[in-house]
Design goal:
Blueprint (H helix, E strand, L loop, with lengths): L6 H19 L3 H15 L5 H18 L5 H22 L12 E8 L5 E6 L5 E5 L9 E7 L6 E11 L2 E6 L4 H18 L3
Antiparallel strand pairs: 1-2, 1-4, 2-3, 3-6, 4-5, 5-6
Helix pairs in contact: 1-2, 1-3, 2-4, 3-4
The structure holds protoporphyrin IX containing FE.
Length: 200
């Protein structure tokens, strides 16, 4: 696949991907928009699961070269974050691409259990009943979780819920029953994600 590729260009693409992934996690609107744009362009290419595995190995090797403090925990964090983004990109491309489909939007935020400090993370598949969060720890179904959605241009929205099931790079969260004003806010967040990430 990479026989005729320009390697310095590939290297720049990988570094750029690492930068935008890190920026998006902490809420940088450009990083979030770029992930959405790449999800759309890459969804139109015939990229197989094996190609994404090769891409991930190359991205990890690049991150290792760029980070003098590299260790096993940092590697695990990158694998989780990039795995979540690849999952987001591949899951979105198998969908119809309807602008009302919650799974095609990615947002930044935090999640925390009652015992732990809040961790910044990427979140996708936001609907009125739940969402998926990128998570670096293991929590069994039923664990109480507080998720904060920080959609660009909206006040942060704090929601309580439970782990519905673990996923390869985090958790599916089911929100607890929403008060009417929380429900209205969440509808607003979903609407603003749709607008900001489809360029409307
Ligand atoms: C095997 C998997 C992949 C292949 C074959 C691939 C291929 C490509 C190609 C052909 C382009 C140029 C066209 C365009 O800009 O859309 C590109 C650009 C790009 N890709 Fe990928 N890609 C892969 C995985 C990923 C993943 C997982 C990310 C995650 C963030 C990513 C991020 C980017 C970025 C940021 C650019 C734009 C670079 C620039 O501005 O020059 N790619 N990729």
């Amino acid at each position: 696949m990479f026989r005729f590729t320009d390697f310095s260009r590939q290297q720049r693409m990988l570094v750029k991907s690492l930068e935008l992934s890190a920026k998006a996690t902490v809420g940088d609107p450009e990083g979030l928009r770029e992930i959405q744009a790449r999800t759309e362009t890459h969804g139109r290419m015939a990229i197989t699961r094996e190609m994404y595995d090769l891409w991930l190995a190359a991205a990890i090797a690049t991150a290792r070269e760029c980070d003098p403090r590299w260790d096993a925990a940092i590697e695990q964090a990158w694998r989780t974050l990039l795995g979540f983004i690849i999952r987001h990109m591949t899951r979105s491309s198998t969908r119809t691409g309807s602008p009302t489909d919650a799974a095609i939007f990615v947002v930044s935020g935090t999640w925390r259990t009652t015992a732990a400090e809040a961790s910044p993370c990427l979140i996708d598949a936001v609907s009125l009943s739940g969402c998926s969060v990128c998570g670096y720890a293991s929590h069994p179904p039923g664990t109480a979780i507080e998720v904060t959605l920080s959609a660009t241009g909206r006040p942060a929205l704090h929601l309580r819920g439970r782990v519905a099931h673990e996923q390869p790079h985090g958790f599916a969260i089911a929100f607890d029953a929403l008060a009417p004003e929380q429900r209205a806010e969440l509808e607003g967040v979903i609407g603003s994600l749709r607008n900001s990430q489809t360029g409307e």
